[in-house]
Amino acid sequence: MGSHLKNILIVSFGFLLLFTAYGGLQSLQSSLNADQGLGTASLSVLYGAIILSSMFLPPILIKNLGCKWTIVVSMGCYVAYSLGNLYPSWETLIPTSIILGLGGAPLWSAKCTYLTISGNMQGKKENKEGRDIINQYFGIFFLIFQSSAVWGNLMSSLIFELADDRASITEEQLTHCGAADCPVTNVTGNSTIDIPPDSLRYTLVGSYIGVGVLSVILVAVFLDDLDKEAAQEFRDNRQPFFSVFLATFKHLRDKRQILLIPMTMYSGFEQGFLAGDYNKSYVTCALGIRYVGYSMICFGATNSISSFAFGKLSRYTGRIALFALGTVTNLSCIIALFLWKPHPDDLAVFFVFSGLWGMADAVWQTQTNALYGVLFEEHKEAAFANYRLWESVGFVIAFGYSSYLCVDVKLYVVLAVLVVGMVLYGCVEYIEYKNPTACIENKLEVEEKPYIAQSKL
């Protein structure tokens, strides 16, 4: 695979470093910045900004800068968010959340475009199906990328272990943990969260900033600029702004895209629940904030291994079987979280839930990305922009109501979105069965409408 594999590895390790920092911060927002719901509010604003940027920024940046430099510029936006966490307040976190949000959609769009271009080029070179190579590349990417949850959260847990004084959790407080946690009781918002001293916060956030800067340098220096000529030709023959802006919404005329919206939103809901609610109402409430990192390490390790495995298995089992596995796993976890009363004596159970959630999330990430790439092969840019748009809507809603609804209500919401999403996904598969999508010839060319782009997560 030569140079294409090298590029995939550089992109993967660049994202690994970047999301070692961002993933660690996101996992801690609901606990570390719990005052007045600042942490979850910043995440909601962040993904709201991603929604706006999904509407127009990905095609504009990718077509003008190319995939490589879009990734580099967008990575810089993520580093800005880490800087805002040095001195968290409404004046620092909200603006940097907006900056990150504006860079989020182009980042994932460019990444997906880059992987798809590489897969198609390699497929043509090896005389193989481009979609098979794309699946493999996404599997490699997520194998490396999802392990960022391990390293970022390991950093936070090890640093927070250095704290001298830790709050004790009483049996009475434990009765308000889990599905019983509710903003009215305000238990997890105060006494059960042992906030670490500022010195440890500065150490952790400073480390995250350094890792983020390293990721920018890695991609800027070593990644090949595959679509440089296409970007240059686009700049020389620039399209009207609104033709680019409306491409995302025109794609909604495809009924398959409409049917996939709930399942795409569920990806945001389930990740938002884990980061915003499970970490706070189960792990932090019953064990303390230092265990959030360890719990997310379990999630990340399982997610990483499963992502690689599912990328390989999809060629033999097909995507439907894997989507079914993810559905059953998440459904079982949601029901169990309704019934379980978290307690420090059940330490292993906290990690079982994290691991199972990580396995299910691996399905949503690898297979949904691949599904969009296969179904909308001729309109990758608009399709992946829609993916990021609707996933971000799920994040915004999940983080937006995090500080206002009781956990049991949130579980009902996540369950409902999962069921609706999978029923409509079944309709898409039925349509695809009746009218299979033709596989277009693998190529990297500039046609009448010159562009090479797409979008992500």
Order of helices and strands: HHHHHHHHHHHHHHHH
Strand % is under 5%
Rg calculated over all Cα atoms: 21 Å
Given the C-alpha coordinates, what overall shape results? globular
Calculate the terminal CA-CA distance, rounded to whole Å: 24 Å
Count of β-strands: 0
Low-confidence stretches: 187-192, 440-457
Q: Could you state the oligomeric state of the chains shown?
A: single chain
Structural class: mainly alpha
The main β sheet shows up as:
none
**Number of distinct helices:** 16
Q: Overall pLDDT, averaged?
A: 82
Percent of residues in helical segments? over 70%
Structural account:
Helices cover 77% and strands 0% of the residues. It has helices at 2-32, 38-84, 90-126, 130-145, 148-160, 171-174, 198-222, 228-236, 241-245, 247-250, 255-286, 290-317, 319-339, 347-375, 380-400, 407-434. α2 packs across α8, α3 runs antiparallel to α15 (380-400) and α5 (148-160) packs antiparallel against α7 (198-222). The longest helix has 47 residues, at 38-84. The chain is globular, with a radius of gyration of 21 Å.
Helices, strands, pairings?
Elements: H1 2-32, H2 38-84, H3 90-126, H4 130-145, H5 148-160, H6 171-174, H7 198-222, H8 228-236, H9 241-245, H10 247-250, H11 255-286, H12 290-317, H13 319-339, H14 347-375, H15 380-400, H16 407-434
Helix pairs in contact: 1-2, 1-3, 1-4, 1-5, 1-7, 1-11, 2-3, 2-7, 2-8, 2-15, 3-4, 3-15, 4-12, 4-14, 5-7, 5-12, 11-12, 11-14, 11-15, 11-16, 12-13, 12-14, 13-14, 13-16
